[in-house]
Design a protein that fits this description.
heterodimer, A: about 150 residues, mainly alpha, Helicase, Ruva Protein, domain 3, about 65% helix, rod-shaped, B: about 180 residues, alpha/beta, Glutaredoxin, 2 domains, five-stranded mixed β-sheet, two-stranded antiparallel ribbon, 6 helices, elongated
């Protein structure tokens, strides 16, 4: 539990930053999250006229007080969902986010099962039932004959 | 692994493969092919791909199919950020005065912000109607970027040609007006 504490505290520290980014987005961060529709790169990588047009639109909406979600929704309404550099965290977009995680978990489970089976196959075979008194005496006689 | 668990895992793997194959089949079925521009270059005259898009002026939608068999069409793909589009659209606007009664002039504002597009039309005096193809999906079926791209569609719905050389504009207009 003590090991988890720093991680939890770090996650809690990030919450206000994420909220600020949502309610007061900057042009710079949105330029990295929005695609230029004619050059297939993010806006921050492009200076084409189409990219400049979208940058102006984003700057206008930021000045008007729109949230990041409102700005992105507006862009999707104008240009379609391909305008976003990453799929949205809702609806069908969730598949793109969770499919890799599901794949990693499935692979980890498969490796775990495989490792367990492999480890079991290497364990020594269990010993048979204990010898009865007559067999034990006979074994001792045979051994003493060899040792003698 | 127990037998039921093994069967479940195998069933899951088979379902995954079938799903991926279905996805591939859907992709192939919905492929735009080579596009109108490439078909014209290959000497073909394909049927104009249908589209039904919102009008830029907010007066409902425009369905290209509605004109098939009724009027020939000049289709102008443009955007407000496209500098050469000003020259081409202005030439079409001039041609509209001469052929507007026999030929439908339709603009397709593509990969563009509709507010800027409306300002652009006003600024340059473009009066023929345009539809908004923000995602560029219609443009992709006709050949994709770069723009401007101007196509001529006969009354039958067959694409007669694409304007490559400026001097060809009167010839194409006469050809489709007579179709």
């Amino acid at each position: 539990m003590k090991r988890l504490l720093p991680i939890v505290l770090f996650a809690l520290l990030l919450v206000p930053t994420a909220r600020a980014s949502e309610s007061h987005p900057t042009l710079a961060e949105l330029e990295g999250e929005v695609m230029c529709p004619v050059c297939e790169t993010t806006l921050d990588q492009s200076s084409s006229p189409a990219a400049q047009q979208i940058k102006r639109l984003i700057a206008t909406r930021i000045a008007a007080g729109d949230t990041k979600t409102q700005i992105k929704d507006r862009l999707v309404a104008e240009y379609g969902s391909a305008i976003l550099a990453a799929p949205p965290h809702r609806g069908f977009g969730l598949v793109a986010w969770w499919l890799p995680v599901a794949g990693i978990v499935a692979a980890a489970v498969a490796v775990g099962f495989g490792a367990r089976r492999w480890a079991r196959s290497r364990e020594p075979a269990p010993a048979g039932p204990p010898l009865d008194a007559a067999s034990e005496r006979r074994l001792d006689e045979e051994l003493s004959r060899f040792e003698g | 692994m127990t037998r039921p668990a093994r069967l479940a895992a195998q069933g899951l793997a088979v379902a995954l493969v079938i799903g991926l194959l279905a996805l591939l089949a859907w992709r192939v079925a919905n492929d735009n092919g080579k596009g109108v521009a490439q078909a014209l270059k290959d000497g073909e005259h394909p049927t104009a791909p249908a589209f039904d898009l919102s009008r830029l002026d907010g007066r409902g939608r425009f369905d290209l199919m509605a004109l098939r068999g009724k009027k020939p069409i000049v289709l102008d793909f443009w955007a407000s950020w496209c500098v050469p589009c000003i020259h081409e659209s202005t030439r079409l606007e001039a041609a509209l005065k001469r052929y507007g009664d026999r030929v439908a002039f339709i603009g397709v504002d593509t990969k563009d912000f509709s507010g800027d597009a409306r300002d652009w039309q006003r600024k340059h005096g473009i009066t023929y109607p345009s539809v908004h193809d923000g995602s560029g999906s219609v443009l992709a079926k006709w050949g994709g970027l770069p723009i401007p791209r101007i196509f001529f569609v006969a009354r039958s719905g067959r694409v007669v040609g694409e304007l490559i050389v400026e001097e060809d504009l009167p010839r194409y207009l006469r050809q489709i007006a007579a179709s």
